[in-house]
């Protein structure tokens, strides 16, 4: 087991290197950082001196090597835009994104799984049809439109929930959390729902399809014939067997939720990593963009690792294999 | 027990009465689309930074509500006798926010800091040859040539405390790393930075020891950058913020029809124009003319100018909020040429005739470059203009892109025609002549935004004279000549002055300055 985790972590280094390489080869097409760093009155001479100082005239391979070797030594560099240390900028934004992603995930699971089970058991019911229709609409509308609609309904028209930002946060060590104040939770609801709605639909449909499949299998018929109580039958016997594919997809999706919370974060001015990345693109802040993409790659690797470990926890057959 | 309750309610009642009567205390929340990149006043010469820091730091002179220059840390100034330059008499009994007192040493130090290679604002001091301290409250700025506009040109030159900067290792602005002054401040201005979370939230509180009388009633000002315009409007309409700058044109009606909100409209000092690749040998993006550059012929440029229907653009794209421009500055900027206020009228027939005369009876195709995130409705404007050009035979191949990629393209001469907006940093006509009309000259640092390298020997000759002329009438005559030359040669097609659109709650009073600066010292929350 330990060897397995170690192997995955070593692999992750290569994944991150590959991502950094791809990212760096694309940065030259994003634009010129110097014109974004300087004012209109800055002379051409001063601009080219700054370009030289920041090493932007160096060949691509040299810039990439410098970036990776600095990073391996724990030096993440300084932002072109704010001149802050990049490591500090990114770590200060991680809590916002993670908390948003986790709440979105929880919403999608706690609504998606029961809804999936229900719609599988009553495939022709009116409620089922209604749920399926609503969620279809939910995934068809782009995230930013859903976000704006929710903001205007609950924030502007009804005035129930805040329209932007994180509301009240509590500092726990270096972690800034929204979980401990009412204001924080109020600010979380809309963006978390917006971010989770696609995930929710996916979870629900997946659980539904798997569930309908499992319900037709022999062991469920036998269990029904034996008189196993309905609740135990559905949730212990049937649902557990649908979980392996569901966890795979949800796990992979969660990486995506973290990585692509950019849109939701921008609509709700949610001060997470995605918003930072968006600002960095605008200002061609190469150091921040580079580190962000590497961090996201690392998230994907970790999420996949967790998914693999969950398989083992859920499916006893895999545990047997591991021992052999 | 009962007594206590009574007394408490009496106190509460008085407090309520006071807050209702005086409206003297208020938290003010505002948003803008860009967070100031730094708190260092010399590190980045950009409007979001300078506008924000004008609340905290002050210069020798400052601009008032109507943009006029008025005394700030200097009480008066006069030209030096016997040499070129200006003498500034400094205000006494001014203290920095950390309590240190302000004197000539701080001005000297700030000059050295701001004119250093590491500073982005150093171009302001290129006319300066020497600065010397005369006494504790008198400073001389010696210039290489007579420079009547020098005091106006340093309104955003902000003064730091020498002791504070040096003892915190911030003697120079940070270029590629952070220093103390990028996150901390110590100015003489009306507000103090009380907390800063870059990109998230910045809080300012009044500076109790400010030398000037505070006319605002803000006790705490909270700034949040909101990048997404729809989110910004929602934040205003839900009452979470009191003021936002700017708002998109299409949201004006939505804000206006709601009770309790107002839209503040004005003209920015920014003129939007088309520029040409004057010195190009041939067109880069043409499918039919490959061996010549038709735009080097003034008749073709005039034809392009005559094909633009500015009234339709105003009505359709800008809801009647733009002012057509005849030259590269709007009418209220000093040096505006009142003798040259005519602009080429919309006249497609004349445009076609001019093209025929120039040898292009069927027109030709060319590439038009535009940014899509820099000016209000820039992409829509270019689409409209492209179809207007096409109507007379100038078949424009439009390509648009984000501004971060746009300037590098223009610098590489990768265009046939392009869109540009220009706001004169000194609020004088000399500014666009220096940057847009003088030939490109990197040694003299002139013409650095004259991408197409429009070049006219007479304009080049007049610029230094305009910069040095003390007599306003003589100066204006020279400016009139430049404007007349560039109009005749159609160096650019000036289109219009960009509108300035802010939105606020009804109970907030503020000043909308034409340079799009927002200053807290003019805010009153009722």
Largest sheet of chain A: 2 strands, antiparallel
Q: Give the helix level of chain A as a range of percent.
A: over 70%
Instruction: State the total count of DSSP E strands of chain B.
Output: 19
Q: Which stretches of chain B of 5+ consecutive residues score pLDDT under 50? A: 1-23
Large-scale geometry of chain B: globular
Count of distinct strands of chain A: 2
Tell me the series of helices and strands of chain A, N- to C-terminal.
HHHHHHHEEHHHHHHH
Largest sheet of chain B, in brief, is: 11 strands, mixed
Q: What is the distance, rounded to the nearest whole angstrom, between the alpha carbons of the first and last residues of chain A?
A: 12 Å
> How would you describe the oligomerization state of the chains in this entry?
heterodimer
> Could you tell me the mean pLDDT of chain B?
91
Portion of residues in beta strands of chain B equals 15-25%
Instruction: Write down the overall mean pLDDT of chain A.
Output: 86
From the alpha-carbon coordinates, what is the Rg of chain B to the nearest angstrom?
26 Å
Q: How large a portion of the residues of chain A is in β-strands, by DSSP E? A: under 5%
Roughly how many Å is the radius of gyration of chain A? 24 Å
Unreliable stretches of chain A (pLDDT < 50, length at least 5) are none
Q: Roughly what percent helix of chain B?
A: 25-40%
- The largest beta-sheet of chain A arranges its strands as 1-2
Shape of chain A: globular
Task: Please explain how this structure is put together.
The complex is a heterodimer of chains A (324) and B (526). Helix content of chain A is 76%, strand content 2%. By secondary structure, chain A is mainly α. Chain A has a two-stranded antiparallel ribbon with strand order 1-2. In chain A, helix 5 runs antiparallel to helix 10, helix 7 packs across helix 8 and helix 12 (273-282) packs antiparallel against helix 13. Chain A contains 14 helices and two strands; from the N terminus they run H-H-H-H-H-H-H-E-E-H-H-H-H-H-H-H. Chain A is globular, with a radius of gyration of 24 Å. By secondary structure, chain B is α+β, with helices and mostly antiparallel strands. Chain B is built from 16 helices and 19 strands. Chain B has helices spanning 2-22, 47-53, 104-114, 150-153, 162-167, 180-183, 229-237, 252-256, 298-306, 310-318, 348-357, 378-392, 403-411, 430-437, 457-468, 472-488, and strands at residues 26-32, 61-63, 69-71, 74-79, 85-90, 128-135, 138-143, 191-197, 201-206, 218-225, 243-245, 261-276, 323-324, 364-371, 394-401, 417-422, 492-505, 508-509, 524-525. In chain B, strands 1, 8, 9, 10, 11, 12, 13, 14, 15, 16 and 17 form an eleven-stranded mixed beta sheet that branches. In chain B, strands 4-5-7-6 form a four-stranded antiparallel beta sheet, covered by helices on one side. Chain B is globular. Residues 1-23 of chain B have low confidence and may be disordered. Chains A and B meet through helix 2, helix 3, helix 7 and helix 12 of A and helix 7 and helix 13 of B.
């Amino acid at each position: 087991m330990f060897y397995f985790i170690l192997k995955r972590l070593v692999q992750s280094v290569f994944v991150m290197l590959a991502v950094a390489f791809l990212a760096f080869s694309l940065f030259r097409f994003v634009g010129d950082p110097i014109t974004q760093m300087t004012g209109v009155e800055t002379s051409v001479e001063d601009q080219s001196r700054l370009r030289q100082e920041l090493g932007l005239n160096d060949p691509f391979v040299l810039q990439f090597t410098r970036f990776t070797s600095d990073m391996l030594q724990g030096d993440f560099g300084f932002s072109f835009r704010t001149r802050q240390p990049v490591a500090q900028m990114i770590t200060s934004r991680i809590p916002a994104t993670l908390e948003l992603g986790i709440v979105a995930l929880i919403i999608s699971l706690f609504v998606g799984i029961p809804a999936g089970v229900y719609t599988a058991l009553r495939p022709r019911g009116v409620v089922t049809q209604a749920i399926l229709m609503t969620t279809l609409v939910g995934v068809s509308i782009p995230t930013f439109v859903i976000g704006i609609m929710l903001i205007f309904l609950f924030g502007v028209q009804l005035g129930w929930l805040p329209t932007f930002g994180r509301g009240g946060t509590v500092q726990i060590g270096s972690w800034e959390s929204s979980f401990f104040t009412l204001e924080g939770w109020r600010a979380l609801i809309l963006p978390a729902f917006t971010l989770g709605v696609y995930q929710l639909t996916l979870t629900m449909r997946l659980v539904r399809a798997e569930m309908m499949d499992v319900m037709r299998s022999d062991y469920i018929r036998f269990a029904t014939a034996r008189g196993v109580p309905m609740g135990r039958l559905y949730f212990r016997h049937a649902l557990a067997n649908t979980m392996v594919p569901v966890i795979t997809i949800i796990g992979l999706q969660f990486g995506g939720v973290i990585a692509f919370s950019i849109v939701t974060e921008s609509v709700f001015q949610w001060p997470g990593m995605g918003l930072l990345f968006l600002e960095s693109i605008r200002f061609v802040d190469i150091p921040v963009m580079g580190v962000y993409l590497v961090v996201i790659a690392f998230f994907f690797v970790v999420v996949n690792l967790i998914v693999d470990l969950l398989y083992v926890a859920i499916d006893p057959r895999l545990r047997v294999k591991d021992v052999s | 027990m009962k007594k206590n309750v009574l007394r408490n309610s009496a106190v509460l009642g008085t407090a309520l009465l006071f807050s209702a009567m005086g409206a003297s205390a208020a938290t003010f929340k505002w948003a803008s689309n860009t967070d100031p990149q730094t708190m260092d006043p010399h590190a980045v010469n950009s409007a979001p930074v300078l506008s924000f820091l004008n609340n905290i730091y002050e210069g020798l002179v400052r601009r008032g509500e109507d943009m006029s220059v008025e005394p700030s840390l200097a009480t008066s100034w006069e030209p030096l006798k016997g040499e070129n330059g200006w003498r500034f008499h400094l205000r006494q009994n001014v203290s920095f926010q950390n309590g240190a007192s302000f004197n000539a040493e701080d001005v000297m130090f700030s000059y050295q800091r701001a004119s250093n290679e590491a500073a982005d604002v150093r171009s302001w001091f290129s006319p300066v040859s020497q600065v010397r301290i005369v006494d504790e409250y008198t400073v001389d700025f010696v210039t290489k040539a007579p420079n009547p506009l020098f005091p106006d040109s340093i309104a955003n030159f902000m003064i730091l405390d020498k002791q504070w900067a040096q003892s915190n290792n911030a003697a120079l602005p940070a270029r590629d790393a952070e220093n103390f002054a990028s996150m901390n401040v110590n100015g003489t201005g009306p507000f103090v930075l009380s907390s800063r979370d870059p990109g998230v939230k910045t809080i300012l509180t009044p500076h109790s020891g400010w030398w000037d009388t505070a006319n605002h009633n803000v006790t705490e000002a909270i700034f949040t950058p909101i990048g997404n315009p729809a989110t910004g409007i929602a934040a205003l309409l839900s009452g979470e913020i009191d003021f936002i700058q700017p708002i998109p044109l299409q949201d004006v009606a939505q804000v206006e029809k709601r009770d309790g909100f107002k839209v503040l409209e004005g003209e920015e000092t920014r003129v939007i124009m088309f520029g040409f690749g004057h010195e190009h040998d041939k067109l880069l993006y043409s499918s039919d003319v490959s061996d010549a550059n038709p735009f080097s012929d003034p008749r073709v440029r005039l034809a392009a100018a005559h094909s633009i229907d500015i009234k339709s653009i105003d009505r359709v794209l800008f809801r009647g909020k733009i002012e057509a421009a005849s030259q590269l500055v709007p009418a209220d900027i000093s040096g505006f040429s009142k003798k040259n206020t005519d602009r080429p009228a919309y006249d497609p027939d004349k445009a076609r005739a001019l093209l025929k005369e120039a040898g292009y009876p069927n027109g030709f195709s060319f590439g038009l470059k535009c940014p899509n995130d820099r000016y209000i409705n820039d992409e829509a404007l270019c689409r409209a203009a492209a179809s207007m050009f096409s109507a007379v035979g100038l078949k424009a191949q439009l390509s648009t892109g984000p501004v971060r990629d746009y300037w590098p393209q223009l610098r590489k001469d990768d265009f046939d025609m392009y869109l540009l907006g220009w706001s004169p940093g000194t609020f004088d006509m000399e500014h666009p002549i220096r940057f847009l009309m003088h030939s490109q000259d990197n040694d003299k640092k002139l013409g650095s935004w004259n991408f197409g390298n429009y070049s006219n020997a007479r304009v080049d000759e007049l610029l230094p004279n305009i910069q040095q002329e003390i007599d306003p009438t003589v100066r204006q005559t020279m400016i009139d000549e430049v404007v007349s030359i560039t109009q005749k040669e159609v160096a650019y097609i000036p289109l219009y002055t960009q509108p300035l659109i802010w939105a606020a709650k009804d109970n907030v009073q503020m000043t909308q300055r034409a340079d799009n600066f927002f200053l807290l010292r003019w805010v009153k929350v009722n």
